[in-house]
Amino acid sequence: MAVIRDSSSIRVEDGTATVRGWVQDIRNMGGISFLTLRDRFGTVQITMPKKKIDPGLFGLLTKLPRETVVSVTGEVKASNQTALGLEVIPASAEVFSEAGVPLPMGVIDKVNVEMDTRLNNRFMDLRKPEIKAIFELKSMMVALIEEAVRENGFTQVFTPKISAAGAEGGAELFKIKYFDKDAFLAQSPQLYKQILMSTGLDRIFEIAPAFRAERSNTNRHVTEFISFDGEMSWIENEEQVMAMIEEIVDHVLVGLKEKGKRQLEILGKEIRVPARPYPILTYSECLKIVNEGGLSLKEGDDLGTEGEKIVGDRMAEKGVDLYFIAEYPEEAKPFYIMEKDGTPYSFSFDLDYRGQEISSGGQREHRYDRLVARMENKGLNPEDFAFYLDAFRYGMPPHGGWGIGIERLLVKMLDLPNIREAILFPRDPSRLSP
Ligand code: AMO
User: What is the strand order of the sheet 348-353 is part of?
Assistant: First the structure.
């Protein structure tokens, strides 16, 4: 008999199989009992006609607590009663690890378990195929991102996560003690990816944790997320950066739709691949849409969660999922973004996915004097950034880049209700464990 499926836990030789996994369910029907064994790839039915099985083995297998980890060896028979089209009649079994009773939460029970209970017992929650599928897709997504950037000549880098200065605003910095000094957890690799543009590496990317001391308890903010950052030299405008992200995101969507078929099916989700190029709206156009939608924002105001949603709804009416919002007011953007001279705007953009920001970026200010002036205008002390500014004093090419929150991208792609669904062990203001 051929190997049943691509699994490390099932081997079939000469009609005999060894199956290993978790006891999902046992049904005792009098003369016959059924054990459903679950592994990474699905379930297998162990069928036990009482009269045909050794009484000791029958007794052992029919009394196992749910979620016990076992190995069962026996004869494989074709069956039209099971999803796999076969069943195993056990001849021997080994219990690797008996599960305690009661379970902290069910794996197959269809009751609605609170998210907190699920996250507190994440090891159990992840046994559900539809939860595991999210993380298999996340892994594939990262591989596809890497494929796309490498194809475009980007070098992968690893920058420090313990830092002397933050780039994205003081209020969201996690301060830590670094021996007898104060230090911070990296909010983004911003300063380092720009320093690297002065080295001639030209195109770099990083996929790594980023930390934000954000007290907001929303479905899209966490205090630790994975940031996919890119930085590229010799650009003429920020639109070249936007074109690069678009190419990468498209590669991810197309690739995941194909490679993640099985997982998407388990989740009951479909990935829509939008037409290219993605539309570009300006901040001013968005402000108009938002105000028509009932808000009263002034020039320079942050669009905010509500504003982004209104723009998202307007774009949805046109069948558009992904779109850029460009030319934000320079005041609303960090010091490292280049101003659009003679206007109150900047060479910056966000990429929004159905009403939610998933990325921001832009062309950077590479001219030392202008950069220092921008820092000072924003009330920052250039001396605190000396290690960064030095790289701008001895030859820095024009450059630009982006940061994408990979969980935000995944959440929108799969239409998940909460960013915590896309993080194995999420961190937020009230969650530090597990
Ligand atoms: P920004 O601060 O907009 O820009 O962050 C970039 C992207 O990171 C994600 N993100 C978050 N995801 C989950 N929880 C959070 N608390 C959180 N904060 C941010 C979002 C966001 O779009 N250095 C710039 C990028 C650049 O210009 O290159 C930066 O960090 O998806």
Answer: 155-156, 203-211, 224-233, 399-405, 356-363, 348-353, 322-326, 280-282
pLDDT of 116:
95
**Structure tokens given for 433:** 């464990």
- 153-191: buried (b, 16+ CB within 10 Å) or exposed (e) per residue? ebeebebeeebbbbbbeeebbbeeeeeeeebbbbbbbbb
Hey, whose CA ends up nearest to atom 11 of ligand 1?
405
Output the CA 117–ligand 1 centroid distance in Å: 28
3-state secondary structure of 38: strand
Q: How confident is the model at residue 318 (pLDDT cuts 50, 70, 90)?
A: very high
Counting from 1 in the atom list of ligand 1, the atom nearest the Cα of 337 is: 27
CA–CA distance, 430 with 353 (Å, rounded to integer): 27
Reported as a pLDDT band with limits 50, 70 and 90, residue 79 is confident
Structure tokens belonging to residue 143? 């591989």
- 63, 67, 68, 69 alpha-carbon torsion, rounded to 10°: 140
Q: How far apart are the first and last CA of the chain?
A: 44
Which one-letter amino acid corresponds to residue 155? T
Residues whose CB is less than 8 angstroms from the CB of residue 16 and which lie 6 or more positions away in sequence, other chains included: 73, 74, 75, 76, 91
Angle, helices 304-317/283-292, rounded to nearest 10 degrees: 90
Q: Catalytic site residue 251? A: no
Torsion-angle region of 340 (φ positive above 0: left; ψ -120 to 50: alpha; else: beta):
beta
Give me the residues paired with residue 94 across strands. 71
Q: Which residues contact 101 (CB under 8 A, 6 or more apart)?
A: 65
Q: In what order do the strands lie in the sheet with 175-178?
A: 162-163, 181-185, 175-178
Which of 203, 220, 354, 366 is catalytic? The answer is 220
Place 8 in a pLDDT band, splitting at 50, 70 and 90: very low
Contact 280, 322 (CB under 8 A): no
Query: CA 432 to CA 434: how far, in whole Å?
Result: 7
- Rounded to an integer, the average pLDDT of 223-234 is 98
Please count the residues of the chain: 434
Residue whose CA is at the smallest distance from ligand 1 atom 27: 361
